[in-house]
Automatic annotation (TrEMBL):
GO terms for biological process: fatty acid beta-oxidation. Belongs to the thiolase-like superfamily. Thiolase family. The keyword Cell membrane does not apply. This is acetyl-CoA C-acyltransferase. Its main location: mitochondrion. Keywords: Acyltransferase, Fatty acid metabolism, Lipid metabolism, Mitochondrion, Transferase. InterPro entries: Thiolase-like, Thiolase_C, Thiolase_CS. GO terms for molecular function: acetyl-CoA C-acetyltransferase activity. It comes from the Eukaryota. Residues 9-69 form the Thiolase C-terminal domain. It is an enzyme of class 2 (transferase).
Amino acid sequence: KFGGKKVGDVDMDKLNTKGGSLAVGHPFGATGSRLVTTASRRLQDENQRFALIAACADGGAGHACILERYDN
C-alpha cells in the first residue's frame, strides 16, 4: 500500500520488504556489492534457493545476476 491505497497488482508474498536502493542507500561504486551481500544474506536468513539481482547503470546500461545457495 502507498499512502493507504493499493498500487498495482503486487503479490505481497513477493514484495521486497527489506527495501531497495532508496530505502537502504545507493553508495557510489558499491551498489553491486551491497546488492549481492544483501541478497546472499536473505537467501540464508529466509532459507531460499535463488535470488535475482538487477540494477541500472549510467547511460542506459544495466546488469542482472542470479544467485543460488548451496547447502553444506
